[in-house]
Amino acid sequence: MTVSLHSPRVFQRTISNLALCGSPRWEEMVAMDELCEMDCSVLKRLLKDDSAKCLVLDCRSFLAYSAGHIRSAVNIRCNTIVRRRAKGSVSLDQILSGDEEVRGRLKSGLYSAVILYDERTPDADTIKEDSTITLVLNALYRDAFGTEVYLLKGGFDRFFSQYPDFCLKTKSLPSSTSLSVLDSSCRSTSCGTLQHDQGGPVEILPFLYLGSAYHASKKDMLDGMGISALLNVSSNCPNHFEGMYQYKCIPVEDNHKEDISSWFMEAIEFIDSVKDSNGRVLVHCQAGISRSATICLAYLMMKKRVRLEEAFEFVKQRRSIISPNFSFMGQLLQFESQVLATSCAAEVASPGGTVTTSTTSTSTTMLGPKSSTAPPPSPTFIFSFPVAVAVHGPTSSLSYLQSPITTSPSC
């Protein structure tokens, strides 16, 4: 039968009909307070026939979602930092941060149903009170009026085992890739040293690629991957194809004295501008190991609201040779704290992203964009772990991070 969802009432009747048309194994919905259950076969039918009327929310981690997820599913933002900051209650603005269109449609009642899934929860009776599913349910019941919410029985594990064609899985990534020095034909004379390579740039996101200066010098490679813009994170690697691609340069060296964090927001805005124009951007430095990797990590932390640890693992799975220098890692940790502090302030005050420091009487906009015309400010600190990282610019009241990757502030 053809499934057509034109209203919540028709949607309810459609799912009920599916139960009658199926085999005895179809136990699609079991009422439990306000939460109903949905069998994998029903979701498969909905995805096939009328997916526009249902919203599928993946309640797993960013890494798990990136490894594989149900087609058209949206990954909610509810990592350990958000959970701790929310203190038991999250909003749709938090869990759908960055998905404004989905959030708007949900609040406007344009979805007939929302289907939640995690890794393998079998039924509603086994949902724990402190689980991500519970937090998302509370947010939906509070902010998504009139929309029916369902739990996918068995989660992603069961659905993928039954309907792999309705899932997107990341291609197998090598567990480790040794550094390989290219032969003399792959030397970049402009950069002066041999380049490390993994055969080509790696895809971080559908519009964001990470690679080396060697990759940036190969037009056939760039064209083959659909690259339309290049973000050159170096002071001495040339832009080989001016006029043929969109270029932006971030002139920093790979050393412990550089303040690469002062360029984070400008780089993020450039990447977003390429994304918004349906283009693809290659972020590169000389070897694609430290500077360009740092920019990609900052982008993931800002846009996906993930911790540095999770972003680092995600990128390393794709380009195993990444290794931001010690100072850059410290600046990324400070950036993580600023991203989270800005979110905290927005929850308490307005979404303008401003916070007032405890040591000054002025309001400082955290993570504000740096002027594209003005030169980067002179470095004001050298990161030396485990000494606290100094904030670039006005004094901040943020708690300093003492761990290289695992410590994060909370509100």
UniProtKB/TrEMBL annotation:
<protein>
    <recommendedName>
        <fullName>Dual specificity protein phosphatase</fullName>
        <ecNumber>3.1.3.16</ecNumber>
        <ecNumber>3.1.3.48</ecNumber>
    </recommendedName>
</protein>
<keyword id="KW-0378">Hydrolase</keyword>
<feature type="domain" description="Rhodanese">
    <location>
        <begin position="50"/>
        <end position="168"/>
    </location>
</feature>
<dbReference type="Pfam" id="PF00782">
    <property type="entry name" value="DSPc"/>
</dbReference>
<feature type="region of interest" description="Disordered">
    <location>
        <begin position="352"/>
        <end position="373"/>
    </location>
</feature>
<dbReference type="InterPro" id="IPR036873">
    <property type="entry name" value="Rhodanese-like_dom_sf"/>
</dbReference>
<dbReference type="GO" id="GO:0005737">
    <property type="term" value="C:cytoplasm"/>
</dbReference>
<dbReference type="GO" id="GO:0004722">
    <property type="term" value="F:protein serine/threonine phosphatase activity"/>
</dbReference>
<dbReference type="GO" id="GO:0017017">
    <property type="term" value="F:MAP kinase tyrosine/serine/threonine phosphatase activity"/>
</dbReference>
<dbReference type="GO" id="GO:1903225">
    <property type="term" value="P:negative regulation of endodermal cell differentiation"/>
</dbReference>
<dbReference type="GO" id="GO:0004725">
    <property type="term" value="F:protein tyrosine phosphatase activity"/>
</dbReference>
<feature type="domain" description="Tyrosine specific protein phosphatases">
    <location>
        <begin position="262"/>
        <end position="319"/>
    </location>
</feature>
<dbReference type="GO" id="GO:0040037">
    <property type="term" value="P:negative regulation of fibroblast growth factor receptor signaling pathway"/>
</dbReference>
<keyword id="KW-0539">Nucleus</keyword>
<dbReference type="InterPro" id="IPR020422">
    <property type="entry name" value="TYR_PHOSPHATASE_DUAL_dom"/>
</dbReference>
<dbReference type="InterPro" id="IPR000387">
    <property type="entry name" value="Tyr_Pase_dom"/>
</dbReference>
<dbReference type="InterPro" id="IPR008343">
    <property type="entry name" value="MKP"/>
</dbReference>
<dbReference type="InterPro" id="IPR001763">
    <property type="entry name" value="Rhodanese-like_dom"/>
</dbReference>
<dbReference type="InterPro" id="IPR029021">
    <property type="entry name" value="Prot-tyrosine_phosphatase-like"/>
</dbReference>
<dbReference type="Pfam" id="PF00581">
    <property type="entry name" value="Rhodanese"/>
</dbReference>
<dbReference type="GO" id="GO:0070373">
    <property type="term" value="P:negative regulation of ERK1 and ERK2 cascade"/>
</dbReference>
<feature type="active site" description="Phosphocysteine intermediate">
    <location>
        <position position="285"/>
    </location>
</feature>
<dbReference type="GO" id="GO:0001714">
    <property type="term" value="P:endodermal cell fate specification"/>
</dbReference>
<dbReference type="GO" id="GO:0005634">
    <property type="term" value="C:nucleus"/>
</dbReference>
<keyword id="KW-0904">Protein phosphatase</keyword>
<dbReference type="InterPro" id="IPR016130">
    <property type="entry name" value="Tyr_Pase_AS"/>
</dbReference>
<dbReference type="InterPro" id="IPR000340">
    <property type="entry name" value="Dual-sp_phosphatase_cat-dom"/>
</dbReference>
<comment type="similarity">
    <text>Belongs to the protein-tyrosine phosphatase family. Non-receptor class dual specificity subfamily.</text>
</comment>
<dbReference type="InterPro" id="IPR003595">
    <property type="entry name" value="Tyr_Pase_cat"/>
</dbReference>
<feature type="compositionally biased region" description="Low complexity">
    <location>
        <begin position="354"/>
        <end position="373"/>
    </location>
</feature>
<feature type="domain" description="Tyrosine-protein phosphatase">
    <location>
        <begin position="200"/>
        <end position="341"/>
    </location>
</feature>
